Amino acid sequence: MAIVLNQNKTSKQLLWVGIAGIVMFFAGLTSAVIVRKAEGNWLEFQMPDWFWISTIAIISSSILLHISKRAVKNGTSPLVFLLGALALGVVFTFSQFFGWNQLVSEGVYLTGEGSNPAGSFLYVITLAHLLHLLGGLIAISVTTVNSRRGKYTAENYLGIELTSTYWHFLGVLWLYLFFFFNYL
């Protein structure tokens, strides 16, 4: 029993160290936005409507992951909630691509003629978030498969707990980025 508790504690600590690194990465990127915007020649544009859909999807999926954790703690299957969270994570992903297409149609480009640092930063930062989110989708997929196999019990649900913590972090990070770019 002590070995399992130590493994759980170590896994949680490693997750938090990883999250701290990601926070520093995005803090550096958003600091660069603030510094660069102060230099001038900054294109003002509206965030794509699709990013609002992304926001709703990630909040909803985070809620479903929370419910899945509560379900397994109560001795019921979290599978349907995990599947819902996974589906909403995919909705988030597609909404990002549709949002980028909307930006291009409005003349906001990543690089090349007609590009502006404002658009370039938005693309790079949202793409970096999406790459981290893909890791979360993999984690939810593995957790869903493990749930289907009956791996989790009311006493052992570390996979769901770690996945849920990481996903909640990604949701909070997205909210920060979304409001940062909306109200910068």
Provide a short characterization of the protein structure.
With 184 residues, the chain is mostly helical. It contains 5 helices and no strands.
What would the keywords be for this entry?
single chain; 184 residues; 5 helices; mainly alpha
Uncertain stretches of 5 or more adjacent residues: none
Helix-strand pattern: HHHHH
Tell me, rounded to a whole number, the average pLDDT: 95
**Strand residues, percent:** under 5%
Helix content, binned percent: over 70%
Strand elements, count: 0
The largest sheet, given as strand count, sense and whether it forms a barrel, is: none
Write the layout of secondary structure elements.
Blueprint: H1 2-38, H2 49-73, H3 79-105, H4 117-148, H5 158-183
Helix pairs in contact: 1-4, 1-5, 2-3, 2-5, 3-4, 4-5
Summarize the structure in words.
With 184 residues, this protein is mainly α. The chain has a single domain, classed as Cytochrome c oxidase, subunit III, four-helix bundle (Four Helix Bundle (Hemerythrin (Met), subunit A), Up-down Bundle), CATH 1.20.120. Helices cover 80% and strands 0% of the residues. The chain is elongated and about 55 Å long. It starts with a helix and ends with a helix.
